[in-house]
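Case 641 in the screening queue. Each case pairs one protein sequence with one candidate compound; here the compound is WTA. For every case the pipeline is the same: read the inputs, emit a complex structure as tokens, and attach any notable structural observations.

Predict complex for case 641.
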Amino acid sequence: MSLQIKSFEEYQEIYKKSVEDPEGFWAGVADHFFWKKKWQNVLSWDFEKADIKWFEGGKLNITENCLDRHIYSLGDKPAIIWEPNDPEEAHRVLTYKQLLNKVEQFANVLKNNDIKKGDRVCIYLPMVPELAIAMLACARIGAIHTVVFGGFSARSIADRINDTDSKLVITADGGFRGTKTIELKNIVDDALEQTSSVEKVIVLTRTRTPVSMIKGRDVWWEDEVRKVETMGSPACPAEEMDAEDMLFVLYTSGSTGKPKGVVHTTGGYMVYTGYTFSNVFQYQPDEIYFCTADIGWITGHSYIVYGPLSQGATSLMFEGIPTYPDAGRFWDVVEKHKVNILYTAPTAIRSLMAFGDEYLEDKDLSSINKLGSVGEPINEEAWNWFNEKIGKSEAPIVDTWWQTENGGILISPLAGITPTKPSYAMLPLPGVQPALMDENGNELEGNDVSGNLCIKFPWPGMLRTTYGDHQRCIDTYFSAYPGKYFSEDGCLRDKEGHYRITGRVDDVLNVSGHRIGTAELEDAINMHADVVESAIVGYPHKIKGQGIYAYIIADNVERNEDELKQNILATVTRLIGPIAKPDIVQFVEDLPKTRSGKIMRRILRKIAENELDNLGDITTLLNPDVVENVIEGAKKYREKV
Ligand code: WTA
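Case 641 output:
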């Protein structure tokens, strides 16, 4: 069979086969990759124990699949095109040959710095090609990377280093984002005050921000590369990995406690990201593909680095932000590099839409032939604008639903093959078996139903565990509906059997496509000396999808409310990062609670949404009187909502 589905009939046929004979189907897909030794067993699984193994006994290295195997036929094809933050700076192109060379070189740097198979390496880099090189170099030698998004604080980096016991940090002096320079190395220095496992820090030169290099610990990327160059052969043989060896850990927020380290393994992740990339985007050999995500998130891991490279694609990587130097930047990048496939997020679409169509004038977008959306529900208005203004009503839009835990896309149209409908993710990909569940734990059969979205059969890209705490993985994903993976998303299946994701059903907010755990954020706010208690809820936000609304009980509010608010926001920035800062802070005297003392978030959510007719029964509250006070107080903030 060929890897890429070509028609809707073929999709239906393959989907059917993938459900009737999942092992046969996935073995056929895996045959399209390079294995040093073939697997003995396609799949073994037990969801109750969160014990999932794909391609057991198979030996491979993912970088051989992403690089070496393309060298003969695609060696001079651009693997990565890099567009810098500043449009005046030259862009860079790395062909497959050059990328392999750089990956091998840096893999040797890692070895020289005492990194071995199984060691954990924390990466905190800006969106430069060296980020992809660092990840692939880790994979080359079997080290496990954990990439931390540049918008996270020192404390968040420290938590991730401590949780994974990382030995090495790879960072840069700084990073450019629009008009700002982020002092990455200084942030890492602060993080390392709170950790003890890190032996070395490799620092890439990017912004020439002054940094303090600590003797014996900190080394420059460029010096280390020079060292291995003088040592002779640049080659670095790819370490032979088991299909189920860990490839990376990526942290994501859940409804309780600290972020979880989602673990992905080598074989299944490679097969799944490669297969879904090829099929969802219907990638053709000469196309330029541009995913605007940050590699610090799962979308960047799977669909800037591993998926496209395993398919020999040209992946465009952009360092900057959509609004710098102005809100036409994406379109400049598309025009300059003749981008064919653009994969972005609803929040970016909505924000560019709000800037007005004048930023589209004179931009040549004729190269675009496919569009994609990811990270949050896309509203109809944004979908239509994307379709008409960017795709000129000719480029199919794939609204791709998936999660960090999934490794790759689960529900999505195949571009140009599956029919599309605004705000619908449409149909499951081959091998994906969704189930909608009611509140009693029964599966809802048939069409025209809505419920909690579960997946009832394993797929190769799914998470295997949460780092260092397997029980947490079982409890979070496999306990609510025994025998099924629970996504914590709500979903409907319409009369035609098409899927539409309606959003999280747990206490996780999706703010500009970033997952923010309300409990984690409340914990951070509660650390402030004046804060007594807090409650976080989401509310609809025109650009961000959801905004963060914080209700806070605090001392000394009357002294200087604005200053206190700023101090609380600074606390959030310090403990989590600027991405988690509430949009609205309302100081309250008290919070509505149940008789057992639980905060009634449902009521707070309604007040934040200004849905006051719909508060439900409040007479059973411990303190029904506070509701009126909170509503009264909220009026002050109303114009902002
Ligand atoms: C949401 C991002 C609607 C969903 C790849 C999910 C979506 C969470 C879509 C995962 C979509 C992602 N339509 N909602 N197409 N894609 N989501 O882990 O709520 O950062 O649970 O992974 O984003 O976010 P994560």
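Case 641 observations:
- The mean pLDDT is 96.
- Residues 512-640 form a domain with the GMP Synthetase; Chain A, domain 3 fold (CATH 3.30.300.30).
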